[in-house]
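Thread: EPU complex, take 2
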Amino acid sequence: MTIQENFPLKNYNTFGVNVSAKYFAEVSSVEELVEILKNDNTSTLPLLFLGGGSNILFTKDFDGLVIQLHLKGISEEILDENHVLVKAKAGENWHKFVQFCLTKNYGGLENLSLIPGNVGTSPMQNIGAYGTEIKDTFVSCKVLNLENLEVEVFDKEKCRFGYRDSIFKQEGKGKYVILEVAFKLTSKNHTVRTDYGAIKSELEKLSIANPTIQEVSKAVINIRQSKLPDPKVIGNAGSFFKNPTIPLEQFLKVQKKFPEMPNYPNGNWVKVPAGWLIEQCGWKGKQIGNVASHELQALVIVNKTGNASGKEIYEFSTMIIDSVKDKFGIELEREVNII
Ligand code: EPU
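Output below.
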């Protein structure tokens, strides 16, 4: 393992922002990771652990050590005649892992097809799409505690999953490195989740009445490809903001003024789609300098020319937050990690 200096990160963040790390190292085992963390020359530096770089915005060079987790490997264990425990190391690419499970006919992750990033970062924001979140199949994850360099196991309860949220974004932030994640998947008698409107209509379009898990995955891939930009082609980090959840009382007031506002009530709270709010403020497809809101999904900010700086993207997101606040009185929260 070598530590490189002034290392360019453009290919290590899906926004394609051109920043550099003062030091950079790639580790392919837990032993290597521990070794580097114990190293006298590096142990005092600010640290940043990088997975697929798909949920991060660098607004400046990183004046510390970036560690790319290249931990690979998938293992399976039969639990009972209907279930299997599948464990994947943090550095496995998420979509490839989902496809591996589908090839084996393991069900539960198909709705999460084509989400960018690595397995190791999936519990951080409890990745979710089309009616499924990883917490639905998550069993546990192995982590390295950065204070004592011991390996610990976090079960589902300990992870405190919420909407795009977990302990790793709250009080556990910066304290643990996720090394491996275990999922309980079905090996037969799969439950397919097709109630999300877009999946239903995509399956109808494909004339599929009783879809297999592989067909659900295909439908999800089609939907994502039809409106979400491919980071390999145009830099982005998926949804830039969370969908805000506002008190019912506040919603009823705003709804009087904007009766057509889509909404998902849940008890005394209502979730409203940020993409709709942003579009209503005229941002969909709008470009300023090198940055734009995606023309097919306003919630996604793109590095339109490929030359955007992180600061420019951040300022663009601030303009969006300000105009949504002005028009609707609703505060958008960034979902992407800002460095
Ligand atoms: N909408 C608009 N204009 C837009 C975008 C959306 O009016 O430009 C409206 C849609 O018409 C619909 C509603 O907003 O009524 C919801 O849109 P959509 O189903 O596309 O989902 P979303 O809420 O925008 C969320 C996730 C996505 C995930 C999809 C599908 C968040 C922050 N985003 O988006 O996740 O793929 O649902 O489940 O929860 C990601 O996290 O990177 C991501 C892409």
